[in-house]
Amino acid sequence: MAGSREIRTKIKSVQNTRKITKAMEMVAASKMRKAQERMRQARPYGDKIRNIAAHLAHANPEYRHPFLVQKGDRKDIGVLVVTSDKGLCGALNTNVLRLVTQKAKDLAEQGATVQYTAIGNKAFGFLQRVRANVVSHVVGLGDRPHLDALVGPVKVQIDAYREGKIGALYVVYTRFINTMKQEPVVEQLLPLPAERLAKDARAARQNWDYMYEPDAKTVLDQLLRRYLEALIFQALAENIASEQSARMVAMKSASDNASSVIDDLTLVYNKSRQAAITKELSEIVGGAAAV
What we know:
Elements: H1 4-57, E1 77-82, H2 92-109, E2 114-119, H3 121-129, E3 134-138, H4 147-162, E4 168-178, E5 181-190, H5 195-199, H6 216-290
Parallel strand pairs: 1-2, 1-4, 2-3
Antiparallel strand pairs: 4-5
Protein name: ATP synthase gamma chain
Family: Belongs to the ATPase gamma chain family.
Membrane topology: Peripheral membrane protein
């Protein structure tokens, strides 16, 4: 059995660790509420612009925007991978990166090559380790990201789509379900997937037509640029809310485990101390009997 001093040292060390995890849990809980509020505020705008863009995809305008054109002859794919910059958030990033790996394997079986944009330090580090084709990246976005920081890295993929270098663009991120559940998902950004229209109850009409002012090109260019910005920012907001929720749960589990370890070590310490006292008493009694 370990000595009493060694056990006391272990107890003190675990207590210090519990203080850190408890503080991180409280900080994550505070950030989580703010992140969830930003995410929920962005959802209605993102849903509405998805519906409008989906209707436009089935319209017959005089100008057909490149974002709405299916490029079936191109097998090359672009993927935006959204992760956190920091760890200590459970399996959040692991699940996303596992989904990215599976998606890349499926595309490779179809003969497609993939180019990546890493959003977040964990994604960038992982893609570098597996020697993936990373064409752009952005890290250090913080808890309140701004869209301006995303424009440059994402524009690389959008320009590649416009120029015909890739045939589709996907985003992989973690969707926030609730505090205890976050789900990694893959969404197609470009071209606009046709199944979005089927999910919209207001798309019962088969033929959509619009009048454009000042002209179709100007309106569609602005609208579809906003569409991409809204979807990418929403994916980032969802990922941040998921990150803070996962970190709060992970730190709470760590604090609970530390408390359990402290209880076990305290029991061992008390047993060790009691054994030492019993031994001393036995020596005293034995010495008195000998005299």
